[in-house]
Amino acid sequence: APAAMLLLGVALSMVPAPRVRTAAIATVAALGAVTSPSVRMFIAQGRLLDWRTDDWRDAVAWFNQEPGHGTGAVLLRTTLIESGSDATGTGTGALDRAYALYPLRSLYRADAADDRLVPLDRARPAALDDGTLGRLSRDGAAWLVTGGSEEGEREAAAGICRQLQERSGRPWAVRASRSFGTVHVARLGPPG
């Protein structure tokens, strides 16, 4: 972007006629303002920057107060760009896992033992290994904490419930769910 602006400034300075140069500068400034995401947001919402809407603090607080939060695995999918498949145990190990679990282990600490926390692949959150599926089937309940869109959370929950139903032979569904901006917490288990 700085190189493009510099090139544009040089090109506009080469316009020989002062009135044409002024009109060209005004046209470029108007086009820049009309196409700027910050200007559109200022017009629509009255602010230049969009504040993040991922409320991990309230999501963790709600989880910690929910009945049954002390049982079942806690499956975590963050939108941290580095939390890919390496964090799920196929990569270099403890540092990747700690990074993937950071939202539940940093300032806002989830009331769950470390061995209950299961990081999910950011790109494929419903792709659970046999060990995790077996554990969830035995526990009979799980928590799903996701960052991102509600649609992504619903797809991940549906995929996980489908796998658990196939494995256990009994239906699984979302039993409770709450969103905190772009952070979603769901309790999964057999209905009833």
Structural features, described:
- There is one protein chain.
- This protein is α/β, with parallel strands linked by helices.
- Helices cover 46% and strands 15% of the residues.
- The chain is built from 8 helices and 5 strands.
- It has helices at residues 2-13, 18-35, 37-45, 56-65, 94-100, 102-105, 130-139, 150-168; strands at 73-77, 117-119, 142-147, 173-180, 183-189.
- Residues 85-91 have low confidence and may be disordered.
Gist?
This protein has 192 residues and is an alpha/beta fold. It is built from eight helices and five strands. Mean pLDDT is 84; it is low at 85-91.
Please state the overall shape, judged from the principal axes of the Cα atoms: elongated
What is the β-strand count? 5
Average pLDDT confidence is: 84
> Describe the biggest sheet?
5 strands, mixed
Radius of gyration (CA) equals: 24 Å
> Low-confidence spans: pLDDT under 50, at least 5 residues?
85-91
Count of helices?
A: 8
- Element order, helices and strands? HHHHEHHEHEHEE
Q: Please report the distance between the alpha carbons of the first and last residues.
A: 56 Å
* Order of strands, widest sheet: 2-1-3-5-4
Give the proportion of residues in helices.
Answer: 40-55%
Helix/strand/pairing category: alpha/beta
Strand content: 15-25%
